[in-house]
Amino acid sequence: MVQKKTAKLEMLYSMKYFSSVSYISFLHSGISGYPYPLVYLLMLFHPYITFQIIHFFASSFFRMTNMLSIRDIAPNMKNWCCIVTVQEKQQVTDSMGTPTKKQKLIFYDSEGSRVEGIIFNADIPKMSPVLQVYRKYRISNADVRSIPPKFQTSDLTVQWVITAKTVIEEVNREEDIMPVKFTFTEFADLAQYMDDKSKSVDVLGVVISSLEKKTITKNSKQSNVQKFVLLNEQSQTVMLSLWDNFLNNERQILLNTIQAYPVVIGRRLKVNNYNGVSLSTWFDSALLVDPPIQEARELKNWAMRNTKLIASLIETKSYIKYNPELFLKADQKTTLICNVSLSQKTTLVKAKISFEHIFQKYWYMSCGKCNCATAADYDIEFTCNSCKQKSPVVPRCRFDVDLSDDSGVIPVSVFGDLAEKLLTFTALEAMDHFNQVILASCGC
Ligand SMILES: [Zn+2]
C-alpha cells in the first residue's frame, strides 16, 4: 500500500509542473504609465497540496525592453521602446512599377534625432490614422532597417517599419517646440533651383490667399491643382501649387484656417519657372501646417502685426504679377546672344533693346484665363479652345523688339504686364488707339 502511494507521488513529480494548468495574463498597471505585463503562472501541483501561485515578475521582461533614444536603435534591434513625435507625414505613394503602396513619416525624439517611419499596403489605412503630426507616441519593436541609398529621399538612413502589429501608444498631448532644425531656402534664392529636377527646397511662409482649384489634363491624365500664396517677412510672395493628394487633406486645413494666417513649412518642393518663380508639391513633398517650431511662431506673430500690408496684397493681387525681384539675381550667369539655343526653357541675356518696327499692333485679343489668342470679340464670354474654360475676352499687350549684344541680335516678343510697363500704355488703351487711329486712317 505504502509502495503504491510512493509510486503515484513519483509519477506526479516527474510530470512537468508547468504543463498541468497554466495561464498567463498580461495586465496593465499604472506604474509610470508603462504597459506593465504581470505574468501570472497558476499551477495546479498536486492533489495533496492545494494551489500554488507563482508570480513571475515582469522584471525579466523589462530588462529586455529598453527605453532608448532614436540614435541608439540600430537596424534589426529587438526589444526596444522609444518616445517620438511625428514631424511630418508624406502622401501615400505607389512604388515605381510595382503594386506596393507606401506612406512615409518622419519621427523625432527629445534629442532632436530623426528617423523615417514607413507603412505599407493594407497597414496604411489601419496605422496611418493612429499617427498624427506633432503628436507624441511611445513606439516599441517596429522592424528597424537601413534604407538602401537609392531609396533615401532625405538625410535619413534608418527606417522603422510600422505594421498593424507595432505597439504604439499616445503620450501626453502638450505641445513642445520641435527640437528639429530646418534649412529653409529664402524666396530670393529660389531662382537658382528653377526647373532642376534633381533639386528640391524647404521653404517657410505664411499662407495669405488661395486661387481657384483647377483640373488640368496632361498626357490624357487628369490632375487637380490649387495655388496658394506664400508670404515671407521681407513681404515677398511666391505661389505654391498643391497637386492631387495634397488637395484632400492639407488644402482643407489651409482653407479652414486662412483667416488666422497659417504658417507652412513646405518640404522637398520643386521650383518652377512659371510667371517668374513658383513652387509646387512633388511626390515626396510634405506640408507642415502651423508646425510647433520657433521660426513658424515668429512668422505668424509678424503676420498678425502686419494685417494691413497683407490685406493690401490680397486686394491688389500683386502676387499674380511677375516679380523680377525673385527672378533676377545680380550674380546670375548670362548667355551671349549667339549662344542662345531654342531648347533652353529660360535664358538670361544682357542686351540692348532696339525698336526697329514702330508700326505694330501692340495688343491681341486673348482668353482672360490662359492668355491664348482668340478671334472672339472684346468683352464677351466665350469658351476657350485651349483651356476649355468659360472666360471673358480681353486685350493683352504684346509687341516685338530686337535684343542685341556684341555677339548678335535676336527678336523677342514682350507680353502682358512687362509689355504694358515698357510701353506705358495698358492693353485696353493700345486697343482703343488702334481702333480709333489705325483703322480710321486706313478707312476700314
Ligand atoms: Zn483659355
From TrEMBL:
Keywords: DNA-binding. It comes from the Eukaryota. Residues 196-289 form the Replication protein A OB domain. The keyword S-adenosyl-L-methionine does not apply. It holds the Pfam family REPA_OB_2. This is Replication protein A 70 kDa DNA-binding subunit B-like isoform X2. The gene is LOC113733376.
